[in-house]
Structure formats: C-alpha cells, structure tokens
Design a protein that fits this description.
Strand order of the largest sheet of chain A: 9-8-10-11-13-12-17
Structural class of chain A: alpha/beta
Largest sheet of chain A: 7 strands, mixed
Largest interface: A-B, 99 and 100 residues
Strand content of chain A: 15-25%
Oligomer: homodimer
Mean pLDDT of chain A: 91
Number of strands of chain A: 19
Distance between the termini of chain A: 68 Å
CATH architecture of the largest domain in chain A: 3-Layer(aba) Sandwich
Low-confidence stretches of chain A: 201-241
Number of domains of chain A: 3
Chain lengths: 616, 616
C-alpha cells in the first residue's frame, strides 16, 4: 500500500494489514472508524464517548501486538468497539447490540480476538494474569494486554490483581486508559493520584532516549527486543521513579498521548520488549472527535439512539423507576436526617442526582466498589443512620458476602435499591438482573419488595426505610412504568383479585402488566383466572400460602432465575403450582422480545396457560 | 495507684483505669495478659500468635482513646483477645470460643466496646469509614480506629475503603499491625512494599521533634490538640514523604515499635491530634513472648488446644478432608500438567502444602483475595488449564459475582474445593459454611458434589477435574472422616438402600453418618427406613426424583441453610418430603452440639422422624 493512499477498511485483511499502513494512513482510518462509531451508536444506542476515546490506542495495540496470539483483555469491554471493527467484525458492526447481532462487550464466543468475557468492571488484570500465567507454563512467549479505564481502579479487584501481577514474571502489560471519567466523574483518592501522574511530562522528557533505541531497530520483530535488552539503561530511562505501580512491581511507562499513534506505538513497543509486567499510562479524551460527546462525556457514556447533528436523544424519558426512586428518597431525606444515599459510580443511572444535589453531605459515590458500598453502609447503620444503597442488580452480585457478613449477622438496618432488576435488554448476559432474587433470598431475615409501578415503588421504599427492620431490598426494573391498571389497589403486601375462576395466576413486578394482557387474550377464548400480585415477595407469607392453597391450579410467572426463585419456594410448600421462570443466562435483545423468549410475554403466558389446561 | 505497684487486672475498672498506670505498670500488665492468653488458648484453642503480637498495641490504643465513645474496629477480629480482656470480659475470658461463652471475634452484641462485627478479612477500613462518617454527620468529634494486619492488605476491599477514606475529612485512624504474616507468610507486591516501610527508621528520626511538642502538653485532653495544631510544622515532621498511603490522602505516622508502649502512645496521640485521616504503621512480632509461637507463628495462628510447655497440640489429626483433598490433587497433577492449584492465603488450611511443594510453578497463593482467585482461575481456564481453587465455604461468598460473570457465562471449566462446608464450630456465625449450597445452586450449569467420606472425596475430585464440564464444586466439611460404613458403595452419584421400608431418608455429606446412627436408634423402636445418600447433589436428577416419588413419606436432612437448599428444590417437585435444614445463622459451639441444636444430630433426627410418624 502506498504511503498516501487512503486505505479501505472494508477491503483490508484485519487486523494483519494494519501493520502495513503509514501513520498518516492510520489517522485516516481513525477518522473513518469514528464516523462508523457515531453512525452505529446513534442508531443502535450503546457506549459512545469511551469508544471515541480509544480509537488510536486500539489501532496502536493491534499494530504492535499480534492478536489472537497475543491476548487482549478489555476491562468492562464497552470500549472495545474499535477492537471489534479492527478484528473482522466491521461487516456485522451495524448489528451492534441487536438480537443475534454482535455484542456491546467482549465475547470469546464471538471472536478469537476477544480473549476474555467482559461486562463487569475491574476484572481484566486478574483475568489477564491468569492468561499470562498459562502462557508462561506452556512456554509461550506472547504477551497478554489488559486495557482498563481509571474508573476500574476504584474497584478492589484491580488491586488484588495488581498485587499478584506485579511480581508474576509474566509477559503482562497493563494499559491504563486514563480519561478521568468512569461513567460519571471518578471519585476517591486513586482518581486524584492518577491525575497527578497524568500531568507529568515524563515520557516526553525521556522521549529522545527512547527514540535513540527504537530508531536503530526495525519496528516489528525480534531484533528490537534484543536491541532494547542490550541497552537496558536506555529503556530504564523510560521508566519513572516512584509511582504506586512500581511499588506493585511493575515497570512504568507513560504518560503517553492516547491520540498520537506514533507515540503510542513507541511506548507499547518498549513495553513489549521488556518481557516483564509493565504498566503503561495512556491519556485519552473521552468522546474525542465528536463535539457533543467531548463536551458531555457522561451523557454519552451509555446511551440510547440519538440525532447525530445535535447529539440529542431520540427518546427522552420523562421518568423512570430509577428517577422516581431517587426523587422519593430525596423527599424522605428532607424530614429524616438519618437517611444517607450510597451509589457505586451510578449517580445518574440510579436517579440519585437529586439526592446528591439536595443533601451532598449525606450522599456518597464510592466508585465502582460494591463491596465497600455495603460495608460502608453497615458502618453507617451501626451508628443509627439509615443507609440506602442504590445499585444495579447485576453489580450487587459483588456484595453478596458483605450483605451476609456485615449487614445481616448484626441485623443492621439498611435498604438496598436493586435497580435494573430482571431483564435489561441490549447489554446481554453480563448485565441481566436475573439473580438478585436467588441470592438475596439466601440472606437470613431479609425483606424483599418487587413493586410493579411507581406508586408501589415509593410505598415500598417508605416502608423499607421507615418501618422494616434489618436488611431490606426494593427491586425494580430498568426503564419506565408502563402499567395501566387502577392504582387504588397499591399497597406494600399483595393484591388479590378473587373472581372465583378456579385458576390463579401469581406474579410480581412489571410482569403483572403482562399477566393482565394475558388475561384479556384468554378471556376472549373463554378462559378466566384470578390474579395475585405480590409486592412484598420475601419472606414467604402464610396468607399467600392460604390463598394459593385454595386453588386446584396455580400459574406462577416470575422474571427471575429458576433456582432460588420465589415460585420455587412456594412450590416447596404448595403442590398445585406450575412455575414459569428464567432458565439460564439471557442473551442480548429487546426486553419484550427476550421476555417472550423466556415465556414471559402476554402471548406466551396465555399460550402456556391454555396449553397446560388442555394437556395438563 | 503508685508507680511501682503491680496492678491487679481482676480488680481494675476497665478500660478506664488503664490511663492511670505508669508505663512500667502497663508492661507488668502485658505480662499478665500474655499468660492469660497462653493459658486460655492452650485449653480452648483459638488464635494465639496474632494476639500475643498485639498486647502492647491494644493497651496503648485504650490508653490514648476513650472506648466506647471512640470506636475501635478490629479487622478479622481474631487479634482482639487483649481488647476483650481490657474491656470488661476478663472474668468470662475462660469461656472463649465455647458454647454460650465469649466469641473469638468481635461482636457488638457482646460488648459496647466491639464497635463492629468481625470475622472476614479486609472489612475494617470500610466499616470504620461508615462509623466515622456517621460521627461527622452527627457533629461527634470522637475518633474511629481501624486496626488491621498486613494480611488484610491483600484483599481488594481494603483498597476500596482506603480510596474513599483518605479524602473523607473524618477523624479516622487506620493502624497497620505489621507482622509480615497473615495466616501463612504474606504474598504479593503489597507485602513486599509494606516491608520496605517496616524497615524505615523515620519515626525515630523525627522522634525528638514530636517529643518537643508532646512534652509541652498534658497527655490527655483538648490542650494537646490545640498545641499540636499551632505547631503544625513540627507535627508534619512526623509524617513521612511518599508512601502509598499518602497517595491515598492519609497522613502517615510510623513505623512504630509495636512492643514499646511509650512510643506507641506518642504516635497515637499525635495521630489523634491531627483530626483527619491518619495511617499509622506499627511493627509487631507475631507470637511475641511465647517462644513456640514466635518460632512458628503460622502453626500458632488458629489452633486447637495444646501443651503450654512444649507448644505441642493435644490432638494430632493424621488426616482430614483438607489434607486428603490436597494430597489427591497433588497426585493428579503428576500426570496432568494442566492442573493448577489456587488458594487465598490458606495453603495449610486447605491441604495444598503438598501441591505447593511438588509443583510450585503451578501453585498460586493469591493472598486474601477470593475475588481475584476466581477471575484468575477463569483466565487460566480460558487457556486450557484446569484450575482448582480450594477455599473455605464462608470465604467463597466473596467470589459470587466472579463465579457467575467470569466462569459460568463463558462455560469455563474450573473446580472449586469448598472446604469447611457446613457447620465449622467454635468460630461462630461469621465462619459457618452454611450458605454455599444456596448460592452455588444459583449459578447456571454448575455441578456440585458433597462427598461423605475420603474415598468419595477423591472420587468426586477426579470426576470434577477429569470428566465434568463447566464450573464444578466439591464441598466437604472441616475435620476428619468419621464414617464407618462399608466403602464398597462409594461412587460419585448416589447410594440407595431399598429395603422396602416404605419410608425414605435422604441426606448427603457427613450427615449420612448421623442418619445411620438414627437408623439404629429407631430400629430399636421398631421403626425402619430406606436411605438415599446423594453424592452429586446438583443439578437435580430424574433418577432421584423417581426414587423419592416411590415413597409416601420422605425425610430430607441437610447441613445447609433452608432457602436455596437441595431439599427445597426437590420439595418443589415432589410433595412427599419433610425437609430438615439449618434455619438461620449458627452461633459458636462444638460441631456436634450445634448440629443437635439444628435438629441434625442422630438423636434429633430420630426424634423428628418418630414425632412426624406419630403426629404427621
């Protein structure tokens, strides 16, 4: 390929052909990639700002290393879109985050270039260390590269990984993609510390020394390693003194300009040549190249579809379960100064921005640190405060031990707002909130609510905070309230409609809407049933058992994993229940279509009931 | 009290009177305390070495601070024996770790001086921050002191805590009790880093400057604060430059000699006067003052009763489930070089010392980092290795998210050796392994074995490693195999004895022995039953359902928490089962007596069956 010709992404053999390009050509490609990112995300929704920030970095990584022999592990993985484009998924990139389309995260099943699954934060160092260790044991000299944002550094798992990785004698390279944002502005001492590194000018100071080494050698291949090894002192000049990461045993390179491909390649080539654990600090700009995203990276972190010219979202949610939760808690905090709100880097996602604004001294964003969040709540509770931790269901999995050990054993009163409970949709397996019922019900003496509409949500939150004891969870789905039923029946226990139909359908949460629609479908076919909507779903209640026991046949529809479900528990007591639950991991897609796949759409509910009545 | 008179611990008002003593008298008391510690632990078992190391530190903390107004949070809590002695529990100290006796860990229910529950590692910083924050919100200027060993620093939760605490503007003091040992020798970069701090002579260098400040002021009370504030520069001299903890936003004091009460008090007094987050580094010697423990602190970490003169244990276990597991795995690793062994700081506890010796390059002690352990295993597995993570049931709670997210979603093949599954005894609520069945069964596609004897354990381990796919768990109890039944029936599925008795008793694990004894008891009363011992307990098997369905009445005894139990799952399918499980947290005591309390002793089993047959 000639130096000046613009390469055609669609016609290249990727990632191999990247190495044949000039820097100028790379920069041309980066422009194309940015256009593709903006186009696709504006249509499909997804993560934009973080991907716009890592275009050059991804390009440089694939030019310096040989994937899939070298293993690239993306932390969280929502910043891997360019990686997907550069590793043979360009033609399918328009299917991003759609049903049967490519994932918004890394999935080894999708490509051999995705070395490890991703979705939850702070995993990459540990996973990459496992991979690098296996390579070492097998005598494979390739490299493992973990790429993580500074947000991941608020999670303890990263430190457990660094503690083991630094002294590991593996070909492990940790790349910090430093943009000073995780989802919203990063919090904590680590963020501040990393920022002090960010502004150091050390790479440039030592640049000439490095260049001396690198210019003597071809850009790729063995010779460079030998050359660099033989001029160890020059390489050492690359390495700063006294960073925390050197205390952990890493060589340190950086900070590099994350939008300068040449500088990135020189730094990464040096890191590669060291053949030991290296920490590379790269400064990037979140949203780079798209003004609305650069100006407002928080809003363009994870987004729905939007208009490209303005950056305005296609649909504006006036309210959501999250915002209703956040607003109600703020109202409650006005008259009760014991109430504290805690979030793990999800202030906006969980609707706590209202609380933060009104009561900043009682609002705590602890970073992506769900373990700490719960133990911190336990400390607050031990002093008579009432901590409320709002967290996505899937991320609450991280707090399981803390809920048992720090809260439940000492009977601490704390409320967990379990947001994004149930199926969340396009983010796929790693993000569905289908396990919280299963694992929370294993916590002794816990109380769990699953409101089906805004009015029930606020009632449950008030009851949990003001009246209940011990650990309480209020779980609610992603998105907004689509209920149309009469709200006069709202309460915090259950709602039972006995029309003496002889058949009962039990459910809870937003599925109640689907049950009501199934009722209509079946009514037209001459099948009628009574309904029991649970609001307080755990502990089991004798009243509920009595109601269920009055029927010959009970259908129980539940948006939760089978084992550990509420229906399983009632089934263990009553022998007249046909349970319908989620039987395993749920892939990406639209919520309504995934519910249908799980047998939980109105149509599938009606079908199951009709079928059961016919065939038993 | 006169300067030279030896104080009588039994006659003092504690902790108040401590402040009236001279340093000489304190040292006398420390000797007495060490004698009490050695006496009691030699009789009751418990943690010795760590407690012998913190006698002076605890004394100094209680002389400088005012518990319970100042809150003391012990990490893990097994090093809090001196604290218990000095806070009104001396008279009951001989009941340490016995039924209805005082706990071997901190329990707020036991004393107002135990500010927070303890048992699991690395919790204290987060909990103390919660407490300190609540104090700040309430306008209470007292201090919160977290005391943690260097072992706790291998756990990520500590870093999540430090990241939030350093910038918190609270009166929080973190004391690092540095003895270079957690349970066995600490691992990782952090341990190495802390050791470099340990050997710095900085406190002594700045000692005279501090003394100048302190000598001008009374030892206790407000004046000192003002004095120190007004001579900020002198205090700043106390503070070292460039420790990692300063990067986290703490003032740093240390290292202090942890066995010199005078030095400790000066350092702590300065820390107190700073009125901001301070990190105090204290060097201690684990086992201090008792030669056998100083020489071999690992063996004297958590121990059974022993002979004081020699330090020899009263009972030597020839074998245990742990050692059988470790030896078998070592044997398997000889012929399969894919097998790797991982432990979270429990090399000896889990019997992996044999593996470590034979295959050090495939043995990984990751520190007290259960999250990392599982993700690291997932990385190994992604490269075709077969990782086996041996871990105590109660600590595996920390890995719940990693088991789902990093292992199960990607169908990685890894084996978890769940040691100390079921009731563990004297360590109490925080350590009972009663939740692993509940939370592991919520992991899609997991296979769980619960062998009842050594022969089954090795068979299950081989099957899990060599034949099964995905995530497998093999769970086994603490201690040794007491089974006496015929081992010809050993297999990895189930063992069914059909004597057409019309009644079936189902169980698994070591409870099978109790069922056999219950059988004898009831046989003498003319009641006979068939038995079904499960070995592979999950997933549920149709064969088992068929067997159960053949009976009119089935009793299911299970050493696991009710919700999420195996019997609950079979109850949800079969309506002829009377389940007997563990209904909540289990306090400390002897295993057999706790099993009896839970209705799972042979006598209670027989009673339940007899009663049920009589009264239905």
């Amino acid at each position: 390929m000639s130096e000046t010709k613009k390469p055609n992404l669609y016609k290249m053999r990727l990632p191999e052909d990247l190495k044949k390009l000039s820097i100028e050509q790379c920069n041309m490609l980066c422009k194309d990639i940015r256009r593709i990112l903006i186009d696709t995300v504006s249509r499909n929704g997804g993560h934009l700002a973080s991907n716009l920030g890592t275009v050059e970095l991804t390009m440089a990584v694939h030019r310096v290393f040989d994937s899939p022999e070298d293993k690239i592990v993306w932390d969280v993985g929502h910043q891997s879109y360019t990686h997907k484009i550069l590793t043979g998924r360009l033609d399918r990139f328009e299917t991003l985050r759609t049903e049967n389309g490519i994932s918004g995260f890394c999935r080894p099943e999708e490509s051999e270039h995705d070395a490890f699954i991703s979705g939850h934060s702070s995993v990459s160092v540990s996973a990459a260390l496992g991979i690098a260790t296996a390579m070492k044991l097998k005598g494979d000299n390739h490299h493992t590269i973990a790429i993580l944002g500074d947000g991941a550094f608020t999670g303890g798992l990263v430190f457990e990984g660094l503690n083991n990785a630094g002294k590991s004698d593996t070909n492990l390279i940790i790349i910090l993609n430093h943009n000073e944002m995780s989802i919203s502005k990063n919090v904590g001492s680590m963020a501040k510390y990393l920022s002090t590194l960010r502004t150091k000018d050390s790479y440039h100071k030592t640049k000439s020394a490095v260049e001396k080494v690198l210019n003597k050698t071809p850009v790729v291949g063995q010779p460079i390693k030998r050359a660099i090894r033989s001029t160890k002192k020059a390489v050492r000049d690359l390495v700063l003194n006294s960073t925390m990461f050197e205390d952990f045993g890493f060589e340190f390179i950086g900070p590099l300009d994350g939008h300068n491909i040449e500088e990135l390649e020189k730094g990464l080539t040096a890191a590669k040549a060291l053949n030991k654990p290296v920490f590379v600090h790269v400064n990037t700009v979140k949203g780079k190249g798209y003004a609305p995203a650069e100006d407002n990276p928080g809003e363009f972190h994870g987004i729905g579809s939007f208009e490209i010219a303005t950056g305005n979202p296609d649909v504006v949610l006036s309210d959501s379960f999250s915002s209703v939760f956040g607003k109600e808690l703020t109202k409650m905090a006005q008259t009760d100064n014991r109430i504290c709100a805690v979030t793990a880097a999800m202030k906006y996602g969980t609707g706590l921005q209202y609380f933060c604004k009104a009561y900043p001294e009682r609002f705590f964003d602890v970073g992506i640190a769900e373990e700490h969040a719960v133990t911190f709540c336990a400390g607050l509770a031990s002093m008579g405060m009432i901590p409320v931790f709002a967290v996505y269901s899937t991320f609450l999995q991280r707090s399981y031990d803390q809920i048992i050990h720090d809260l439940a054993i000492s009977k601490a009163h704390a409320v967990i707002g379990v947001d994004r409970a149930g199926i969340v949709g396009e983010d796929g397996e790693t993000h569905q909130g289908i396990f919280d019922v299963s694992f929370l019900t294993t916590v002794p003496d816990i109380t769990i609510y699953s409101p089906s509409c805004y009015e029930e949500l606020t009632a449950c939150l008030r009851k949990a905070v003001n009246e209940d004891k011990g650990v309480c969870a209020v779980r609610y789905p992603r998105g907004n309230d689509k209920s149309v039923y009469d709200k006069s029946e709202v309460n915090t226990a259950y709602s039972y409609k006995d029309n003496s139909n002889g058949i009962l359908v039990v459910t809870y949460g937003r599925l109640y809407n689907n049950v009501l629609k199934a009722e209509e479908i079946l009514h037209s076919k001459g099948i009628d049933f009574d309904t029991l909507k649970l609001v307080k779903i755990f502990p089991l209640e004798d009243e509920i058992i009595d109601i269920i026991s009055d029927y010959k046949l009970v259908f129980f529809f539940e948006e939760a994993y089978t084992f550990g479900s509420i229906s399983e528990k009632y089934c263990a007591i009553c022998n007249n229940i046909a349970p319908f639950t989620i039987e395993g991991f749920v892939r990406q897609g639209k919520v309504c279509s995934l519910l249908d796949e799980c047998g939980l759409s109105p149509e599938k509910m009606a079908e199951s009931i009709e079928d059961f009545l016919k065939n038993g």
